[in-house]
Amino acid sequence: MICYLDTSAAGKLLVTEPESDALVRHLDQFGHRRGSVIASSTLLETELRRMASRLGFTQAAVSGLLRKLSVIDIERDVFREAGLMLPGGSLRSLDAPHIATAERIAADEFISYDERQAQSAAEVGLRVTQPA
Predict the structure, then answer these.
(1) How far apart are CA 12 and CA 16, in angstroms?
(2) Does the pLDDT value for residue 69 go beyond 90?
(3) Terminal C-alpha separation, the chain
(4) Considering 100, 101, 107, 109, which has the largest number of Cβ atoms within 10 A of its Cβ?
């Protein structure tokens, strides 16, 4: 089983927000399943490091979180797929590679608290959850 975290979810593991505790419980339960993997793409590192700069948490905290995840390198063809995904829709540029990566690795669950991204992920057939 593969659970994919986008940045809106991963950020809640570094900054306490209303959904943080529920997300931690959900991921703990998921992590106890045999063969489970919690993943994200390399794009997450850039987004979390920029978030740390804006919000004032440490780069060491970002590094620690990334070590706990299976971080997937984004290949060029995934960027191409992301760019062609949902033409004419409201899918934003940095959301598309997350969705395309989750599709590529056949994620069983896609966690996003970004409503626009969650809607786009559901439109391409991903099972979106928002533990709260």
Answers:
(1) 6
(2) yes
(3) 21
(4) 101
Average pLDDT over residues 43-49: 98
Q: Do 103 and 126 touch, CB atoms closer than 8 A?
A: yes
Parallel, antiparallel, or unpaired: how do β-strands 128-129 and 70-72 relate? unpaired
Count of H-run helices and E-run strands, the chain? 7, 5
Determine the average pLDDT of the residues in 61-70.
98
Contact of 41 with 81, CB cutoff 8 Å: no
Task: Please give the domain boundaries of the chain with CATH numbers for all domains.
Answer: 2-129 (3.40.50.1010)
3 CB-near residues (< 8 Å, 6+ apart): 27, 30, 36, 37, 38, 39, 107, 108, 109, 111
Q: Is 0.90 surpassed by the pTM of this model?
A: yes
Helix spans in 57-94 (H): 59-68, 76-84
Question: Which residue from 26, 69, 22, 21 is spatially nearest to 44, judged by alpha carbons?
Answer: 69
Question: What percent of the chain has a predicted confidence (pLDDT) above 90?
Answer: 94
